[in-house]
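Researcher: Structure for this, please.
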Amino acid sequence: MWEVCDTAPKIGSLIRADKATLLSGVRAGEIRDLLEQRGVLVFRGAGLSDAEQIEFTKTLGTFAHEKSEQRAGQEGEDHVYPITMDTAINPNADYLKGAFFWHIDGTMAQVPIRASILSARRLAAEGGDTEFCNTYAAWDDLPDDLKARCEGRQVIHSLWRSQLYHDPEPSYAKLQQWKSCGENTLPLVWTHQSGRKSLVLGNTAQQVVGMDVSDSEDLMIRLRDWATSPQFTYRHKWEMGDTVIWDNTGTMHRATWYAVDSDRLMHRTKLEGEEAFA
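Model: Predicted structure, token format:
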């Protein structure tokens, strides 16, 4: 079985496929092409087990291991990563609170992950949807005067900036812990190897190089409002068994609010990055 239909004009496709098709890899090339074109692919009710999700991920590219696994001495082992606010399940849950705000994964690296694959294991009683926006389409449709302001610009990104969104008055010790992750300077407009361009935005964006703080905030918020306007966005309302893939190099995403003590649990796998920010 293989059926594809678009969820919105500029972002997202719903794919109906049986497990055998997904795990065989026979549609892997088509899935990768669709992922770049549409940004987000929804496999409603795929019902993948953890082992099947890992197997499916490997059909699409190189399986990416989590840094937390590497620190735990589990290099080379293939695991799903639990997305939950329950620190008993994920000791790094506090950092995940930044996911409530628009972001791109991997802005602290020169080569961000290619894509993420997320499967629903438990749902929140309220909230917990995931929103996506297409940063390719946002650039393509950006007014020419704004394009001219953005071309050639560099932006400083930092983990500490993203954490201030949910914890605006940290202790000095906590701030220093965040700042120990360093900063990274990235292009505001990413010119991909394909020749296409996308905006590099999100909650890690600290300041546009060469602009004062006020003008930098003005530009970044204006671009975020534009990129996340309805014509470029898709909101996924999770059902048990859903699997969703998004192109981390051409989208931003965020979770809608849900209680931190809710039961919500997602299992994530990722694809290694294939090109550097440029």
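Researcher: Any notable elements?
Model: The chain has two domains: 2-93+108-134+233-271, 143-227. The chain is about 25% helix and 25% strand.
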